[in-house]
Design a protein that fits this description.
heterodimer; A: D-Maltodextrin-Binding Protein, domain 2; D-Maltodextrin-Binding Protein, domain 2; five-stranded mixed beta sheet; four-stranded mixed beta sheet; 20 helices; B: 329 residues; mainly alpha; MetI-like fold; 15 helices; 4 strands; ABC transporter permease (chain B)
Chain lengths: 411, 329
């Protein structure tokens, strides 16, 4: 291990030398989105923070999302910023366990976040501490072609049976009920999560992703049976395994497919494909087990303070700032997502309003299968979901294989 | 004082000049050796060393590594890992099918080895796929296979589908049989990628044979012709033996090309559907470096296995070269 250690020490030395240029009043923030909307939302917030705190000199490093995912593994030790964006749930776990993030439990108590950000608190917590402050999340659900539904006289389905009978009408009229692109796997996890949340509820989702429930557990088998029923009686477009989620918009936009289980970020894609706001709408994923408290997927984005940050005092000021209702309202209006602070207000976009209603009344918020489960489990699980979607008869073989992976990953 | 100084200089100069011939090559080799050590030799050993650890790639806040020693555990896991065997099987498949590039290159070279006006243009057109990046080749073939808008899909639509209008009045296709989706079928995806990989590889072998054909002795061809050799016999007994060095190199680069296949897979399928097109190189990347990986120890174990396979092959190659040199061809 000497060599590895040597590398680490050298990186540390380089880091201390480089950061010597950062002065006492400097606040270095690493952010991870260069897309025009999110970048503007962040830049505006930083400008406002700067105006309110003229004595702090904010230095921003904005990086592409995928590059950030790689870079954070180095910069947390080598050249830590004072604040970095990252994700809650299992995605923050390796960094928390390695002691690379600073707990902010006291900041939450001081600022009253325990009430204002209550819904997200469980996913921001690990080992009895709270590790960051979220600034935004977005809803998942079923996006559908309202014009097709109107033509076929279908109402938004509220229950599983209503969904299945709606599908029957669509199939009679040569409309494929669902579009999806599973080439990059995670879209299938969205469908799985929803069927699982509706079949078994939030606690089973957490138990499964925490490795406490086996994949061959009768409850999970039931989820897969429901999924098989959805594939059989509703059906997804052909060739989904060679499509990205963007490719899968094409049949949706053409009117060949009527529904899409997706996150709210996809609305931009529908509009770019030529659909107008009147042609598309949103409904919550229908109820499967009657009376089960409704949990939703709502992946959040958050800010964290690295343990090696130099200016932790101002970093905490920034974290307190991004959670403020007025800041979250404005920021999320810019990026078209939902503020997490319950005192914040939402924009007048119809998807945002429906999303806010969906998420704010939910009994529990899941982060998404690949954020709640550890990386190796998520990869194997999502491959299993894709394989299952292509051939439902392999169900038990897939579940048994996933049990094996689970045993390996969580030991 | 001055005398002893002078004497020193004289002895120094004479040592240098005495050993000039020994030192000079090492001096010229030094930069290459240093870089080779830093970027190739040391990382190999570091990677082998890492394969005995379990490590998620993170250091603690004070810079110490979070790795823990697991001995041969990673290799034991590898033995029981169906994805590893799937990758190894695909590597073998690549190796076997990639060999088709050698005869295919030979025949294209024979075909192009004529004196017709504009031959240079045709030659460069055939060589073109080797010049463009593998990533581009992967993208092109990805579109080619696409069942919706690719060539395969279009031909299928012409044969089995009829154009109709859907509920909303947009043009759509109804097919009596669903079009083949090569890249998302577990059975055919690997063959699809290999076919894409063959395209530039054939061009490479072709260029090797074209240069080889330039050196084929005209007098031997003529002598053969006088003795009545024609067609296949001429090729097999007279031309091919003279192309032996070209064949050797073509086989070598093709084997290496097959073993290091990575970019095509990364572009076309990311190892999918559900891991069925993985090869060792991509599986290593996936477990160690990709977003869902971060198991550096396990990834290094895969890398080590791939390294050993390559090592055996390259040692054989070097031994053959050495034998050839010794035998003076």
């Amino acid at each position: 291990m000497k060599r590895l250690l040597g590398g680490g020490v050298a990186a540390m030395l380089a880091a201390t030398m480089m950061s010597a240029t950062a002065l006492a009043g400097d606040l270095v923030i690493n952010f991870d989105d260069l897309n025009p909307g999110p970048k503007k939302g962040f830049d505006d917030a930083v400008a406002q923070f700067q105006a309110e705190n003229p004595d702090i000199n904010v230095i921003v490093n904005n990086n592409d999302r995928e590059a950030h995912k790689t870079a954070i593994r180095n910069f947390l030790t080598a050249d830590a910023p004072d604040v970095t964006s990252w994700y809650p749930g299992n995605r923050m776990a390796p960094f928390v366990d390695a002691g690379l993030f600073e707990p902010v439990t006291d900041l939450w108590a001081e600022q009253g976040f325990n009430e204002d950000l209550a819904a997200i608190k469980p996913t921001m917590s690990r080992n009895g501490e709270i590790w960051g402050v979220p600034y935004s999340y977005y809803q998942w659900g079923v996006y559908y072609r309202k014009d097709l539904f109107d033509l076929l006289k279908i109402e938004e389905p509220k229950t599983w049976d209503e969904l299945l009978s709606a599908c029957a009408v669509m199939k009679e009229n040569n409309v494929t009920p669902f579009t999806i692109g599973t080439k990059f796997l995670w879209t299938a996890a969205g469908v799985f999560d929803y069927i699982n949340l509706r079949t078994n509820g939030y606690d089973v989702h957490n138990g499964l992703t925490a490795g406490e429930i086996k994949y061959t557990d009768p409850r999970i088998v039931k989820t897969f049976e429901n999924w098989a029923q959805l594939i059989e009686e509703c059906g997804f477009i052909d060739n989904h395994a060679s499509m990205s989620w963007q490719d899968a918009i094409a049949p949706f936009a053409n009117g060949d497919a009527a529904m899409y289980v997706m996150g709210n970020f996809s609305v931009d894609g529908y509009k770019n494909a030529g659909l107008t706001e009147d042609q598309i709408d949103f409904f919550q994923f229908p109820e499967i087990t009657p009376g089960l408290p409704r949990a939703e997927e709502a992946p959040a984005d958050a800010f964290f303070i690295p343990t090696n940050a130099k200016n932790k005092e101002d970093a905490r000021k920034f974290l307190a700032f991004v959670a403020r209702p007025d800041v979250q309202s404005k920021w999320n209006a810019t990026i078209g997502q939902l503020p997490i602070n319950s005192k914040a207000t939402v924009g007048d976009d119809k998807f945002i309003q429906q999303g806010f209603e969906t998420v704010s009344t939910a009994a529990g918020l899941a982060q998404f299968y690949d954020r709640d489960a550890p990386a190796a489990m998520a990869k194997a699980g999502m491959e299993g979901f894709q394989e299952f979607m292509l051939d439902t008869s392999k169900m038990m073989a897939i579940l048994e294989r996933l049990d094996g992976v689970q045993e390996e990953v969580y030991k | 004082m001055a005398v002893t100084d002078n004497a020193k200089i004289v002895t120094q100069a004479s040592w240098l000049s005495r050993n000039k011939l020994t030192i000079a090559p090492w001096l010229f080799l030094l930069p290459a050796l240093v870089y080779f050590a830093i970027y190739v030799v040391i990382p190999i050993f570091e990677s082998i060393w890492l394969s005995f650890y379990e490590w998620n790639g993170l250091y603690l806040a004070d810079g110490t590594s979070t790795a823990s020693w697991v001995g041969f555990q990673n290799y034991i896991k590898l033995w029981d890992d169906p994805k590893f065997w799937m990758s190894l099987k695909n590597n073998v498949l690549w190796l076997l099918l990639f060999m088709l590039a050698v005869p295919a290159g030979l025949f294209i070279a024979l075909f192009l080895n004529q004196k017709t006006p504009g031959m240079r243009l045709y030659k460069s057109l055939f060589f073109f796929p080797f010049v463009i990046s593998q990533v581009v080749v992967g993208l092109i073939f990805g579109w080619f296979y696409n069942p919706d808008f690719g060539v395969v899909g279009s031909i299928w639509k012409a044969l089995y589908c009829e154009e109709t209008v859907n509920l909303l009045g947009n043009v759509t296709f109804r097919c009596s049989q669903t079009p083949p989706d090569i890249l998302s079928s577990a059975e055919f995806a690997t063959y699809g990628i290999i076919a894409a990989g063959l395209w530039p590889q054939i061009a490479y072998c072709m260029i090797l044979y074209l240069t080889g054909l330039n050196n084929v002795a005209a007098d031997q061809i003529e002598a053969g012709r006088l003795d009545g050799a024609k067609g296949w016999k001429m090729l097999w007994y007279i031309v091919l033996p003279q192309l032996r060095p070209a064949t050797f190199i073509a086989v070598v680069v093709t084997v290496i090309g097959a073993l290091r296949s990575f970019d095509m897979i990364a572009i076309m399928t990311q190892g999918g559907p559900y891991g069925s097109t993985n090869v060792l190189a991509y599986y290593m990347y996936e477990t160690a470096i990709s977003e869902y990986g971060e198991r550096y120890g396990y990834g290094s174990a895969i890398a080590t296995v791939l390294f050993i396979i390559m090592l055996f092959y390259i040692s054989y190659f070097l031994w053959r070269m050495y034998q050839d040199e010794k035998g003076g061809r």
